[in-house]
Predict the structure.
Amino acid sequence: MSTAERLKAAAELFPDEVVTTAHVRHLELPAGGGRFALITLDNGLDHTKPTTFGPRSLGELDAALDRVTAEAERGEIVAVGLTGKPFIFAVGADLKGVELLRHRDDALAIGRGGHDVFRRFAELPVPSFAYYNGAALGGGVEVGLHCTYRTIAAQSPAFALPEVFLGLVPGWGGCTLLPNLIGAERALKVIIENSLSQNRMLKAPKVHELGITDAIFDSADFLEQSLHWTSAVLRGELTVQRPEVDRGEAWDRAVAAARAFADGKVHGAAPAAYRALDIVAAAKNGDVAAGFAAEDEALADLIMGGELRSGIYAFNLVQKRAKRPVGAPDRSLARPVTKVGVVGAGLMASQLALLFARRLEVPVVLTDIDQARVDKGVGHVHEQIDMLLLKGRVGQDQANRLKALVTGSLDKATAFADADFVIEAVFEEMGVKQQVFAELEAVVPEHAILATNTSSLSVTEMASRLAHPERVVGFHFFNPVAVLPLLEIVRAEQTDDASLATAFAVSKKLKKTSVLVKDAPAFVVNRILTRFMGSVLGSIDEGTDIATADRALAPLGLPMSPIQLLELVGPAVAHHVAGTLHAAFPDRFAVSPNLTRVVTAGKRAFYVHDSGRPELDPEVLALFETGDAALTEEQVRDRALEAIAEEIGLMLEEGVVAAAEDIDLCLITGAGWPFHLGGITPYLDRSGVSERVLGRRLLAPGVADVPA
Amino acid sequence: MPRTVREVVFVDGVRTPFGKAGPKGIYHETRADDMVVKCIRELLRRNPGLPPERIEEVAVAATTQIGDQGLTLGRTAAILAGLPTSVPGYSIDRMCAGAMTAVTSTAGAIAFGAADVAVAGGVEHMGRHPMGEGVDPNPRFVSEKLVDESALFMGMTAENLHDRFPHLTRARADAYAARSQEKAAKAYADGRIQPDLVPISVRRTQSESGETGWGLATADEPMRPGTTPEQLAGLKTPFRPHGRVTAGNAAGLNDGATASLIAAEDVARELELPVRMRLVSYAFAGVEPEVMGVGPVPATEKALARAGLSIGDIGLLEVNEAFAVQVLALLDHYGIADDDPRVNQYGGAIAFGHPLASSGVRLMTQLARQFEQQPDVRYGLTTMCVGFGMGGTVIWENPHWEGK
């Protein structure tokens, strides 16, 4: 099948593609450089709709290459260039097209189609030049790698190979060409390390420093200077020099180091990184054709695998669903928030005060029961602002502004008399919180929102004694507040639309991912984690040794093991939440007697690190009283996953969230659960757990897996 | 406080290729501010010895200061060009003599000692901002007959000029115009123009106007080499039935930008910047708005008088060709032949185009090249007519002059 035929067949599978046109325009290079054909990739939309490659787009580029190849063969042009529309070079394969693929042959065709088109830039009878004028991701980066030379705009904000992050490999030449251009170590930094570090992007100077580009020019006249440089190269006035790539042991060492890095991130649980590593390892011999063939196979396998489909599903959740929270009232109902109150001046309260001040840029007043606590809280915020200043994250003027915004007071009546939004972060006990709200209601303006950062108490009950319970909302952050994006927004029974809309508006300004949840015990993340943890602790209580139980979930590639998670949350907090959930659902949530003993003994950790590696603390071990029913890792894992599936099934029946997608969004953004699991429900579906436990899938077929 | 007036020099000048205004023009999808910004950046690249922070003023002219030609363009262009925030800037409007006024204003500041180095230039994107966009002339102009209505339409003022000087016929204007095209073509062939052009990347999204995608403007779009007086004789006279002014013997509607570096001579020497021309004198003068094309006459008289020179001392003239008749009026005044070789050696605006407020610096850049080539010439002048009845003239001395 010819390239054109292959792409045409692929295009039929994807009728809704936003097509990127490859415009060919001719120009005279400066300084007598000769006649030049410049290809512009442009999907005809503005920069908010970045240019992508689907099958028809590849066909367009193929046709453009037909033209310039013929011109080059006839000696009509001296070289060919490639650039993008304003602010965007190209951001890679169109994922919507990938989601639609059902057969491995079609997936294979996409890989080959990309290669067949892109490699033509290397096979032209004249040199080719890629001008990375703006955002270049994935296939966008790769098409440039096929060119003879590359330049980059110095202010270009985003350059990355995010494939591994999603569950793919840079399979249109990236895995093969990049290490051959800049060496394995640098290439793997881009392909593996950045990709697996929350999809870290490179800024242009770094791209240039890595040797990916041959020249860097300011964006202000980037194309002009690139063409000027092109002319100088073509006329022999400039010689491009690239350092020799080390194909010795350094190559193997780099691959081994990147493999260790991948292990640390995905724990062998997702295949993409390892497929990329295998191709990079093999690329050492410089055999480009073999590399491309390996890329095709890897792409086809991964596209037909659940991990990638989960990855795309997860990507869409955080990119799209997170921006339009399902169930949020019309945003026009939101009231302005010009001053914020924080009750409590502890660590959590201080984190909240800093976040509100930074993002809303309005006065934030902390209150507590005595001056010493208030001073400590405000002092802590001011220290954090100084840290931001020191790191260059804010300037001196902004630091002054933020410090002036955050103040403390013992006098709630005065401090909150003109507050529009007051959040409490006091001790997690219903009576205390109710009393705080009662006090607040007496002093705040009528329109003020009263928010609670409770992690497990009933917001409805907390509001129940107020004259105006309709203005109470749950505003549940995740620790550390500055790192985890999730904010569970809880609608209590009487919460009205205006208050809820205000809460969502505030969340948006705080740059949080908000999910609307029902006022149900422990909401979403804590309920699932507690159920999961309860299952693992139950296995231990019954007689499985701690190390075995703690290893049991490793094949999932979760960010931390159950015990590490327990230590992060703090045994006391975990114990408290377990108690709350046990009270609500005694059948499913137990309070581990061993956990109780650990908390009573005041232990905060299970592992000690004295020897340099984590070892179970003998003092903790001594506290444990267990049965003799030892489970295997697999049994522990099955039990834990079944518990999670059951709980999610019940939560959906109870209407805790609008859909299973929201549960996944919560787990990804609030617990850091990985993309390759799609949060968790895609994994529960594809591993058959949900079918086994609930007798049904949690997501419809095709939503996060290969469509039937 | 003791004060010495300092010599002011023209260090360097560049411009974009000029384009035809309108949907088919090369710059139809290019912003005006970007064009002037790219000129400023090119000046900095060409003069690496100049630390950007030594620039103390950025004066940018535009006639229609709206949109991408508004927002105090001198200041915003400085920021967009990447100059340090310490460098101030301002906008200037004297219609066609905008860039010329940017040069004389900054030169005045430098001579006075208020600055050492300045960027002076202009831009006019007549496609994005047609002449007269957003104007609101005071009704008193008409009710009190302060000016004739024709004063607002430059083509009509050119017809008025033909009326005033009946011996300046259409045939002479057409012959002059054809020569301008011929000289411009030769100047291109000799490579006199290209060294001072800043290539501009241009985007086109509409295929009716040609190939789409990004391209590069490297040459003036309006040029019509090979134009003959016979061809010109057949053109319509849009401003008056059976008139004399045509699209062929006038500059068109154009898009373009220019920028120059103006410095105190001692500072230029200290920084080892080139000294291409030394400012001798300048003058602006007013005439009746209905015959604005005669403006260069009193302006030149005044500038010569202030310099203690006579027209006989002037070896080279760069006269803006808004209309052929307006050049002829100046030459006629001084008894200079229509085809005198001292005048517009590289051709003029009839060939290259006249993006209003940018043109003054084009004249200077071309005069500077001619000075370099002709060290036997000591003095030259740049002059132009200005809307609403004005003229401006700047007299320059050739630093390469070998005489005594």
Observations:
- The longest helix of chain A spans residues 633-654.
- The mean pLDDT of chain A is 95.
- Chain A touches chain B through 23 residues (CB under 8 Å).
